[in-house]
Specification:
Layout lengths: L1 H41 L7 H13 L8 E5 L2 E8 L2 H12 L6 E8 L2
Parallel strand pairs: 2-3
Antiparallel strand pairs: 1-2
């Protein structure tokens, strides 16, 4: 009985790393899918209006002194924000300001907040 119990336990322990690897692979695959669909519309260079959207968002940020150091990148109408601000409110304002620019379909806010 003890031999059977230990072999069942050993078999179960061997499946755990396999399940963990499968879960890890699924998460990696799932995170890569949205990126592919972003590039599918206009390619790696983005859509023709992306540079104008980036310039318009940056111009809107220039009206707010606490936003002028943020980085803006646009790809297929999706605005990606990065950089650092001093409060969560500033991050929310940046996202809101970017959403208001004509041609923006979505905003991805990767702004970090320092306390």
């Amino acid at each position: 009985m003890s031999l059977f119990k230990s072999s069942v336990t050993a078999a179960r322990d061997q499946k755990s790393p396999t399940r963990l690897c499968a879960l890890f692979f699924a998460l990696i695959l799932a995170s890569a899918l949205p990126v592919h669909s972003t590039y599918a519309n206009c390619g790696l260079a983005g859509c023709p209006g992306d540079s104008a959207i980036t310039a318009d968002v940056q111009a809107s940020f220039d009206q707010h002194p606490f936003l002028n150091l943020l980085h803006v990148k646009t790809l297929n109408g999706v605005v990606y924000l990065s950089g650092t601000v001093s409060s969560g409110l500033h991050s929310e304002i940046a996202e809101s300001v970017a959403h208001q620019v004509k041609g923006v379909s979505r905003v991805v806010n990767s702004i970090s907040v320092t306390h």
